[in-house]
Automatic annotation (TrEMBL):
Name of the protein in question: non-specific serine/threonine protein kinase
EC number: 2.7.11.1
Catalyses which reaction(s): L-threonyl-[protein] + ATP = O-phospho-L-threonyl-[protein] + ADP + H(+); L-seryl-[protein] + ATP = O-phospho-L-seryl-[protein] + ADP + H(+)
Gene Ontology terms, MF aspect: ATP binding; calcium ion binding; protein serine/threonine kinase activity
Main enzyme class: transferase
Length: 511
């Protein structure tokens, strides 16, 4: 079947088995156990979609390797048994849909993908299946990786490259608007390249937050990916996420901080027009495409915007210090057989036997165990794992890294042990003083308390000022960039901010 890779243990994917612990079976969570241990907030519907292509996707498609995972599902490579075409399948588990809003998001995502026309810069939808466990969205396979990853891998980014990409993104927005759709989550992670070629088409994906609209319709819901604001790359700046939100609402644009002094006046003029607070004077999509910076995208200054932008994007992709600490606690509690296996791999990679892995040893070692990784990704891995800042990875750091890479931190028993480690007073919550105590040795910098408050704010979904086990588990099981992917986090965080701002009357615009 062409380049299709079969999924080992496919029978377990088709038939749920009862086991004492939740387990990952080739990347697919045993949903029957999850539904028994965690009561849903409402009765899960039998059918979600109207007119799916069928209820037995495995007759038509053969599943291959996992491509990625998000808040509600996992994306696999799959192969069409009839045509041999290699595609992507986004499997959305029904057990992950906890509210009516989640259900409506899935329905609307399918409706919108069916509705949008074929376009070279929008991922191509093929069909959708539904069975009792999940919804399966079949779409074009994009092999070139995320826009985000290409930006990071280049080591620097030029204004000309930004102009060309911006033009493509605005053209996608224009097509969406022409067909009555607002994407509502435009960010580098939601654009993939069709292939690995330098000039490969860039394609918009993930319409999970998108909605239909009518001309003249006004919206008040705050949506999007709040952590993107915290990357300090947009022209809004403050010490906290709340401060950044205030700056966005008040439209306090800051072009004084790096990299904006290096950016051309044409680019800044366009940004001002697009971020105009008044919707009646804000630039339309057509006006943006006619702007001289977009029209002359290939002639924009080809000057690098500086290393700081790469550093910030890279930091943006890494987990917070709390999560790294949790991984270390999980690593400490691993069963002996797992620790011994990791120890053997470490000693095999440590060719000079000095007890530390340098860049070359890590890169060569990953290749030896069948996971060749590009240089920029090896460096990112080094940066993430090197907790003590020595420039190398010691054994303890390697075990922590392995826990993350092998997704051992999703193990329920290990997670509970880690949570109890932080919950010193056994109140069933991790509170400020407890978090400060365990992170005391982690060199958080001069603003210790502010960093800890930021961590709690990020993880605390219900905004009660403390971290419950469910919130702790959500942080550890939804991936390194969980806050960006989490629609529930986005809603909870942004709604909490907006309510606070309304109370403070800080939503009022400047005259």
């Amino acid at each position: 079947m062409g380049g299709c890779v079969s999924l080992h243990g496919n029978a377990s994917f088709l038939k749920r088995t009862r086991r004492p612990n939740s387990q990952l079976e080739d990347g697919v969570l045993n949903e029957s156990h999850r539904s028994r241990t965690r009561s849903p907030r409402f009765s899960r519907p039998i059918n979600i979609l109207k007119d799916p292509s069928g209820d037995d996707i495995f007759k038509r498609y053969q599943f291959g390797k996992e491509l990625g995972r998000g808040e509600f599902g996992i994306t696999f490579q799959c192969c069409d048994n009839d045509t041999g075409e290699t595609l992507a399948c986004k499997r959305i588990s029904k057990s992950r849909l906890k509210t009516e809003i989640d259900i409506e998001d899935v329905k609307r995502e399918v409706e919108i993908m069916r509705h949008l026309p074929a376009h070279p810069n929008i991922v191509r939808y093929k069909e959708v299946y539904e069975d009792k466990d999940a919804v399966y969205l079949i779409m074009e396979l994009c092999k070139g990786g995320e826009l985000f990853d290409r930006i990071v891998s280049r080591g620097h980014y030029t204004e000309r490259a930004a102009a060309i990409v911006t033009k493509t993104i605005i053209e996608v927005v224009q097509v969406c608007h022409e067909h009555g759709v607002i994407h509502r989550d435009l960010k580098p992670e939601n654009f993939l390249y069709a292939n690995s070629c330098e000039n490969a088409p860039l394609k918009a994906i993930d319409f999970g937050l998108s909605i239909f609209f009518e001309p003249g319709q006004r919206f008040s819901e705050i949506v999007g990916s709040p952590l993107l604001h915290g990357s300090r790359i947009p022209p809004f700046w403050a010490e906290t996420e709340e401060g950044i939100a205030h700056a966005i609402i008040r439209c306090e644009i800051d072009f004084d901080r790096d990299p904006w002094p290096k950016v051309s006046e044409d680019a800044k003029d366009l940004v001002r027009g697009m971020l105009e607070a008044n919707p009646y004077s804000r630039m339309t999509v057509e006006e943006v495409l006619e702007h001289r910076w977009i029209q002359n995208a290939n002639k924009v200054p080809n000057v690098p915007l500086g290393e700081k932008i790469r550093t910030r994007i890279k930091q943006f992709s890494l987990m917070n210090k709390f999560k790294k600490k949790v991984l270390r606690v999980v690593a400490y509690n691993l069963p002996d057989e797992q620790v011994n296996g990791i120890k053997q791999i470490f000693h095999m990679m440590d060719t000079d036997k000095n007890g530390n892995l340098n860049f070359d040893e890590l890169k060569h070692g990953l290749t030896m165990i069948g996971h060749p990784v590009a240089d920029p990704d090896v460096q990112m891995l080094m940066d993430a794992a090197d907790v003590d800042g020595s420039g190398t990875i010691n054994y303890e750091e390697f075990v922590t890294m392995s826990v993350h890479l092998k997704k051992m931190s999703a193990d329920e028993q290990l997670l509970q042990q880690a949570f109890h480690f932080f919950d010193k007073n056994q109140s069933r919550y991790i509170e400020f003083e407890e978090l400060r105590e365990v992170l005391l040795d982690d060199n958080l910098g001069p603003n210790n308390d502010q960093v800890i408050e930021g961590i709690i704010f990020d993880v605390d979904l219900d905004k009660d000022g403390r971290i419950s086990y469910d919130e702790f588990k959500a942080m550890m099981t939804t991936g390194m960039d969980w806050r960006m992917a989490s629609r529930q986090y986005s809603r909870a965080m942004l709604n909490a901010l907006s309510q606070k701002m309304f109370k403070d009357k800080s939503m009022q615009l400047k005259n």
